[in-house]
Design a protein that fits this description.
With 339 residues, this protein is of the alpha/beta class. The chain has two domains: 23-196, Glucose-6-phosphate isomerase like protein, domain 1 (Rossmann fold), CATH 3.40.50.10490; 217-335, CBS-domain. Helix content is 43%, strand content 18%. The protein is built from 16 helices and 15 strands. The chain has helices spanning 14-17, 24-45, 48-58, 71-85, 95-98, 125-133, 148-152, 174-193, 198-204, 208-213, 217-220, 236-246, 266-271, 282-285, 299-309, 330-335; strands at residues 2-4, 7-9, 64-67, 90-92, 111-115, 137-142, 155-158, 222-223, 229-231, 250-254, 260-265, 287-288, 292-294, 313-317, 324-329. It has a five-stranded parallel β-sheet. It has a four-stranded mixed β-sheet with strand order 8-15-14-13. The protein has a four-stranded mixed β-sheet with strand order 9-10-11-12. Strand 1 (2-4) and strand 2 form a beta hairpin. Helix 2 (24-45) packs across helix 8 (174-193).
Length: 339
Amino acid sequence: MRNTGNVSLTVKTAEESQPTFHGDLDEARRVLTLEAQALETLAQSLDESFEEAITLLLQTQGRVILSGIGKSGHIANKIASTFSSTGTPAFFVHPGEASHGDLGMLTPQDTLIILSFSGETPELSDMLNYAKRFGISLIAITQKANSTLAKIAHTTLLLPPVPEACPMGLAPTTSTTLMLGLGDALAISLLKRKEFSEVDFKKLHPGGLLGRKLLHVFDVMRPYEELPLVLKGTLMSEALVEMTAKGFGCIGIMDTNKKLAGIITDGDLRRHMNPALLSQRVEQIMTPMPKTIVGSSLAAEAVRIMNQESITNLFVIDKESNHLVGLLRLHDCLRAGIA
């Protein structure tokens, strides 16, 4: 406390001036528990309307177009991105921009998904009228079954009446979580119905860590033409020349049917080092029935096998013919960012 004339001032330190909060963890757990319970309620409330929505989306010959305003718009944008990345071409159209020309993005071959908690959002009216006028399929996501949006839609996915996590019940929290979850459910259901595979997923996600994780063995392997190979019966003196020339630290041993019979590695050479090594036949030195992998396997799986078996090379075979098609080296996997 400090006296200034007749006025007494209490001066607090910076630390004392900071507000003190209690129960932050309790509040966080309350919010997350409430939203988790709401998602469970949503899961139990799904009915034939969800199947109708999936049918509409599968029958769509154009694009899936999502829209909404405010927080619902942000969720709609994310759902559009999820659709696109899982094999259903989609994009977001802002209602305000739609009223100023972007309605031209919509065609009768498209399906429109509109998110609105109340179903009465004024900014959506132009888009709704346009969809009705040109016969564009419309899926509504709303909590109000008797709303304008629900009445116009071909099918309506209703959100259950659960409270917002906001203590005032005002900020969209639980409701937007439900919209997001419902969008994920639609996208993944479509993915399964379309039999969207890892190969398809990789085509749409070539960049970043995800793209590297989705690389296949045939994306990284050395092709057959580059492989160090000799037939059974070959002298080790000849095999060493081939092995040294290719520089892979190993050589494949083929039988008379040109099937892989064994492998000789640098380690095998050290274990069998003796004065007579060069005059021995490769089958006396090789490790028979070496580990192999098919080219369509994920490269990450190959790395796991090599780590597990303490090896640095895997011969690659064709899944159908069982013929040798390449060689996968751990160094090449690491160079490609696969670990």
